[in-house]
Amino acid sequence: MSVPMSDSAAMVDELYGPLYRFALSLAGTPAVASDLTQEAFFRWFKQGGELRDPAKVKSWLFTTLYREFLRTSRQSARFPHHELDEVESELPAVAPEELDQLDGALVMAALQQVEETYRAPLSLFYLEGFSYAQIAEALDLPAGTVMSRLSRGRDQLRRHLRNRLTAEEQKLIPFAAAKAR
Description:
The chain has two domains: about 1-90, Rna Polymerase Sigma Factor, Chain: A; about 95-180, Winged helix-like DNA-binding domain superfamily/Winged helix DNA-binding domain (Arc Repressor Mutant, subunit A, Orthogonal Bundle). About 70% of the residues lie in helices and about 0% in strands. The chain is built from nine helices and no strands. It has helices at about 5-25, 30-45, 55-80, 100-115, 115-125, 130-140, 145-165, 165-170, 175. α6 (about 130-140) packs across α7. The termini are far apart. The model is unreliable at about 1-5 and about 175-180 (pLDDT under 50).
């Protein structure tokens, strides 16, 4: 069964944002997130029309994106890519408008420190609003494993946030302070 082009455009409009945010939470960089999102849609248009249940398009796309992330992660582990951290001093200073986004950037940076196994369920649950069942389907895991990974992932995220925040900031953010006691 093939999805008509008009339905495909609506599907892309509806799912691009959530897929991109999921990819960004996994990959940590906008360029890689864009590549992963485009690859998921490319595969959908190439072979997704063969999906038996059209209601599962969303989970198919998230599963495809996650598997592509795992594949590229394995590849980059074998062939590492080195960032250009040496030019950090040449980058422009942070503009005042960008300061509002620093809290989100702090959480995303802490999320990148969470083990990959736990990062995907956390991202789907908190950033995309997936239910346990939807996460289980998208990641091809039992629901109990999803709940366990969410719990362990939250603990790791709290720990990484605590390490990044000052004592004063921890008092202001209940999430980070919850495990500090």
